[in-house]
Structures are given as C-alpha cells and as structure tokens.
Amino acid sequence: YLIEWIMTIFTKNLNVDLAARIWDLYMIEGIKALFQTSIAILMINKSNLINSNFDVSMSILKGKKIFDVDSEELMYYITKTKFNDMICFEIQKLDDEYIPLYNSNM
Fold first, then answer.
1. How far is 99 from 31, CA to CA, in rounded Å?
2. What is the DSSP letter of 51?
3. Are 2 and 10 in contact (CB under 8 A)?
C-alpha cells in the first residue's frame, strides 16, 4: 500500500482537492512530505486498523477513495508528524538514490 500511495502521490486514494494539497506539500517539502502524509493517514485510521484483522486492514489501506477525511484533520496530522535528524537524513538519502535512477531511465 505504501509504494502505491507514494508512486501515485496519493491520487488513487484521496479526493482530487486533498491530493492537490499533498502535491503542493511535496513540491515545497520534498519526499519528506509523502512520508508525513503516509503516517498521518495511518494515524487517522488507527482505530479501524487496530480493531480489524489483517485482511480487513489491508483492504482499508488499499481501498480506493477510502480516505474521505477532512482535509484540515489530515493537514493537522501531517504538520504534527516530525522526524528526527537521522530519519530526515535517511529520507533524503532515498530521494538522492532515486533521482539518478529515474533520470537514467528517461
């Protein structure tokens, strides 16, 4: 589910307006915003995921348009999600490794 979320920049699972806000964050903050959004979605769906078995949890996470959350609630959780320096370094390293791979396939 996470790969799909990030590869589509959430357009498959969020409504267009909310996905556009995530795209804006991505353009400003970089790949870190995508991980913050992923964690925010998990936080919002925490009780449903905890109270469900594995199959139901996976269907929730892979569902189309299941994240009909209030945009302000999602933005709140995104801004609340902070990473320490080590995590930021690892996220940036992933991004730095991806860009040359992407460019070589163009």
1. 11
2. T
3. no
Residues 6+ apart with CB under 8 A from 69: 18, 41, 44
Residue with tokens 């569902």: 63
- DSSP for 8-46, please give it: TTTTTTS-HHHHHHHHHHHHHHTTHHHHHHHHHHHHHTH
Place of tokens 């996905």: 19
Q: pTM value?
A: 0.78
pLDDT tens-digit profile of 1-31?
A: 777 887 788 888 888 888 899 999 999 988 8
Q: Which tens digits make up the pLDDT trace of 51-97?
A: 989 988 888 788 755 566 788 999 999 999 999 999 988 888 887 87
Rounded to an integer, what distance in angstroms lies between the CA atom of residue 35 and that of residue 69? 17
